Amino acid sequence: MKIGILGAGSIGATLARKLSGTGHDVRVANSRGPETIGPHIVAAGARPVEAKNVATDVDVLITSIPLSRMPEVRDLIADLPANAVIVDTSNYYPLRDGRVEALESGKVESVWITEQLGRPVAKAWNAITAGSFEAYGREGGHPDRIAIPVAADRDHDKSVAMALVEETGFDALDAGSLADSWRQQPGAPSYCTDLSGRKLREALAEAEKDRLPQRRDIVVTALTERFPSYTDVNLHYLVRLNRAIYS
Fold it and tell me: Does the pLDDT at position 126 exceed 60?
């Protein structure tokens, strides 16, 4: 497939490398220009392009950008074919100064994104840390394979997103509609806890919407106190913390 990836941060870069490695025709863009795309992404086979060209003639567009930038994407996808699939990886999360990024309290984040873009989306790869996504991809059937939830309203969007999740080395779990995608957002038992398919299904079912903000804020406070910046966070510590607080 022809895949465009908007965003070359930790998740976007790993997506570009993994999907290029499975034979897809991948182009990747960020807000700073193709010359700033890392050589490790290019070496994997992905092609750096201008942001205005990332959605041209693609079968799938993956958005991996801050939530606050999502309204800007609408102009970039003006010519995206009607049958093309958009998969979003972003999260609704408080910033370090206490502000909550881009989204009013109580709004289901993925539904808000469809309103900004004027198109349906699938939600995937948002409930796994960048470190786990990079390190823990496994072949199908491996006993330690981690599962990733996928939510979407259209069957075609969901099936394409789930197939791509499988290709990146993880079991894809149908997490229902976008209205239910809060179950895979920060604060939920499924969020960045590196679970198997069976345990992930249980975690999605156990989520309590009213408790997500408080649990999320506890984790943010703990990380802020322990680590000077998010780039210093220890992956194993983070997953253990999430499991303890979000469960």
Answer: yes
